[in-house]
Amino acid sequence: MKTIKNNSGLLILVLLVVAIAFLRMFIPFPNVTPVAAIALFSAAYFKRKEVAMILPITILLISDVFIGFYSPLLMAGVYGSFILIALIGFVLRRKINFATVVGGSLASSVIFFLVTNFVVWLEGLWYPLTGQGLMMCYYSALPFFRYEVFGTLAFTSVFFGSWALINRYSVVPQKA
Predict the structure, then answer these.
(1) Full DSSP string of 43-58
(2) How many CB atoms lie within 10 A of CB 136?
(3) CA–CA distance, 125 with 60 (Å, rounded to integer)
(4) Would you say 90 and 49 are in contact if contact means Cβ atoms under 8 Å apart?
(5) DSSP-based three-state secondary structure for 173
(6) 141: pLDDT confidence band, cut at 50, 70 and 90?
(7) Where do the H-state alpha helices sit in the chain?
(8) Which secondary structure element, helix H or strand E, spans residue 2, and what is its range?
(9) Other CB atoms closer than 10 Å to residue 149's CB: what's the count?
(10) Which residues contact 53 (CB under 8 A, 6 or more apart)?
């Protein structure tokens, strides 16, 4: 894993993360947000693990102030899924390449899908609290899953690709 000796590359990256995180409030497609990619990327590259865990949660909290809060149980599921996604990013630290990043991105989408839809079912407001109700919940959410996969893959590509370019063209890359 490469870092930049001076902090200019990191500053550019942090600004990119903040700018793209701001987009969460304006993207018109459901589940197309940069938050999973931010959780994955920050855990893979930020030196301090606690920052990597707190960053996506902070982004969610700030944007939820503007977008609007929702069911506390569902919020816990959403926020918790991003903590799980950050854990995938910690695993990525060992070997970052195209295959592991795409795999981590897809795994992130699956985790978000499974956790958040389980919580929707668990609330008992839309689906019966039976095995069939759970399957109905997951089935009903499948159209939104493709948006989640697309958004996470796209934003993950932006973050990991930008960092790779910064490291490739920086003056003094070095091992972390």
Answers:
(1) HHH-S-HHHHHHHHHH
(2) 15
(3) 24
(4) yes
(5) strand
(6) very high
(7) 8-22, 35-45, 49-67, 72-92, 98-123, 131-169
(8) strand 2-4
(9) 20
(10) 43, 83, 86
